[in-house]
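Appendix C reproduces, verbatim, an entry submitted by the partner laboratory led by Prof. M.T., so that reviewers can inspect both the input and the predicted structure.
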Amino acid sequence: MTEFAAVILVDRRGWVLLQERDEHPRIAPEKWSFCGGHLEPGEDPLTGAARELEEETEIRVSPADLHLVAVHDVHHPETGTDDKLHLYAAGVDLTDADVVCHEGRQIVFVDPAKAPDLDLSDSARIGLPQFLGSPQHAALSESVPFRIAP
């Protein structure tokens, strides 16, 4: 079992940051997913989530600004493994222009009404519907705690 950590950023509109993956990753190629990835040896999930977000987008968040959404077991058919996803969220005062895409085709804020219709990765198909419309999603979109300078 491999452990992953991922982040959902929520803007003032309640839109969520998702990554459109390209054809290169072994897991979930050509799918929409969260920003995140494997934990490094000995790394705790919260620190790993913040690190992965910064590596993929240049958006730096303090682990203290991330809130645990859920921990999900995810089966990845591409590798035949049953893995564990630690999913975190934070509210931000950012736009697509503030996001640098270092992985995949694009990383953009997506309207939550349209997100379920995207071709989602296994982890996003499990984690996103539970999060969208939840009290946590609503609270993060209403009270953006910090502004990150691009």
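The beta strands are 3-10, 16-20, 32-33, 35-38, 67-76, 81-91, 106-110. Additional entries are available on request from the coordinating office.
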